[in-house]
Structures are given as C-alpha cells and as structure tokens.
Amino acid sequence: MTRHARNCTAGAVYTYHEKQKDASQSGYGTQNERVGKDSIKSFDCCSLTLQPCRTPIVSPEGHLFDKEALLQYMITKKNEYCRKLKEYEKQKHKEEEELAELGRAEQQSKVNDFLKRESMVKKQNDIYKMKSQKRSEKNVSSISNMANGLDKQLPSFWVPSETPDANKAPMQKPDKTIYCPMSGKPLKLKNFVDVKWTLVNDPSDKKSLAIRENRYMCAVTHDILSNAVPAAVIRTTGHVITMECFEKLIKKDWLHPLNGDKLTEKDIIPLQRGGTGYATTNMNLQGKNARPVLQA
C-alpha cells in the first residue's frame, strides 16, 4: 500500500490519489479514466469515417456525414438486404418442399398400409421383410458422418452449429428500411442538408486546411468553431453558425442574417459534436478498465 505523504505520516485519511495509485499497481478493481481529446471526433469530421468531410451533409438530427461515405453505406446495406432476402426466400422454398415431402410420405405410408393389409400372400410378406432388413442393415453399416450422403448435409461436422442436434433458428424476413448508424432512425437522403463551411482567412497561416487548428468560423459573427463551441446549421442555406449567434441574433426576429429570409425553429439544426464509437457525444467521456476484484 502507498505510504502517506511526508508531512502526513500519521493521517488516517486515504486520499483519492493514493487509492488510484494502489489500484493501478495491484491490478484489481475497475478504473475510470477520462478520455483524451485524441479519442474524440472533431466537429467537422464524418460520423462514419471519422475523417474530415469532402462533401459534408448533415442529418435532421445534426449528425455530420461525408456524402460519398453515406452513399457507400446505403449501398452496402441494400446489398446486405438483397442477400438476406435471397436466404429468406431459399429457406421459405425449402420449408414448402419439406411440407410437400411430408405430404407425399404420408400418402405413401397410407398406400403401403393398405397394400400390407390387403396382401395375404406369405411370400410377398417374406420378400418385403427381407428387403426391409437389408435396407436397415445398409443404413447402419457405417457410423461415419460422411457416409450415406451425409457429407452434403453435414459439411463441417466439427462446427457446433452444424451438428445434427443443433436447431437453427428460423430466419425472419429482413427489413428493407435503412437506418441511420448514429440516431437509429430511418435514413432518407432527401432529408439531408448540404453544409457550407466558412473558411478562416488567415494570411499568416500557410498550413494545409487538414492540419490547421482553426479551420472554420461562424458565417455571421466569424467566431472560430471548435468542439468546445456549440454550432448549428441553417437548413435553408446550409451555413454554419454558433448557437450564441442563434440565441442573440436570429431568435429575436427569426430572419436569416445573410439574406433576410424568414426562418422557423425547424430551420435550425444543432450540430452534434464529440464522441467516437465508445465516447458518447458530450455525455459520457470516460473509459472503463474492468479488472478482477478482491473479495473477502
């Protein structure tokens, strides 16, 4: 256990710093650590590729996407739907064939029962018995999973899901709707709005746009945009403004400050900032490291 500070050798208080240090050295207990800025998506990056957008578009919920990446995502989902639909139709056709086969087998069993009852000739009964015995001996002649045509039914007998005892769950009919990967709502490209960034004109900064720290600014007030600055997109024109500009300038008269058009509350789309796959946008910026716990 960590020793107390030099000036607090007799203190009974177990400080938070000492507790964290002991937890990291012992290897037990769950640790919470705040996610650094390198793990947080930038406000102007695509929610799919996590890279700066070439052709930025924003969803009605405020999630930013690259148009090319979003189209590729939609095409992938459509191809996946077609593949699942073919598998579903194949399964449905197989079930229909099985039902038809059961019907034919039932009909054949009725015919065989009728012939068996009507047949009074002992010779025919003996021949039928001999054939049935030979057939049963032929079926049990091999215990291999690959004999008697089982190689086509059981190609991978070492896979647990392919064993005879494994019951495959029936496949449900796939959903044709494509959902947004961020909000989970139905994805329609016509509802997206093209985003127009206002570049920061700094003659002294000769770096490329991708590596600049200050890339974009508010279209009205020219305030620098960043993850720490809440921003919004005007639906009618696609200009990006700060929420402070919206609260102080637009919300009073509901007029577009650049062209004077009439605006409504639905024309303002708050732009979502922050998180990657494990850091939710501005809500849970902590990473957990779960480790074994000592129990008495």
Brief account:
This protein has 5 helices and 10 strands. The mean pLDDT is 78.
Can you describe what's shown?
By secondary structure, the chain is α+β, with helices and mostly antiparallel strands. The chain has helices at about 15-25, 65-120, 120-140, 150-155, 245-255; strands spanning about 30-35, 55-60, 65, 195, 200, 215, 230-235, 240, 270, 285-290. Helix content is about 30%, strand content about 10%. The chain has a three-stranded antiparallel beta sheet with strand order 3-2-4. Strands 8-7-9 form a three-stranded antiparallel beta sheet. A two-stranded antiparallel ribbon has the order 1-10. The mean pLDDT is about 80.
Top keywords for this entry?
296 residues, alpha+beta, three-stranded antiparallel β-sheet, elongated
How would the blueprint of this fold be written?
Blueprint: H1 16-26, E1 31-34, E2 56-58, E3 64-66, H2 67-118, H3 122-139, H4 150-153, E4 193-194, E5 198-199, E6 216-217, E7 231-234, E8 240-242, H5 243-253, E9 268-271, E10 286-289
Antiparallel strand pairs: 1-10, 2-3, 2-4, 5-6, 7-8, 7-9
Radius of gyration: 34 Å
Number of helices: 5
The tally of beta strands, per DSSP, is: 10
The end-to-end span amounts to 17 Å
Could you state the order of secondary-structure elements as H and E?
HEEEHHHEEEEEHEE
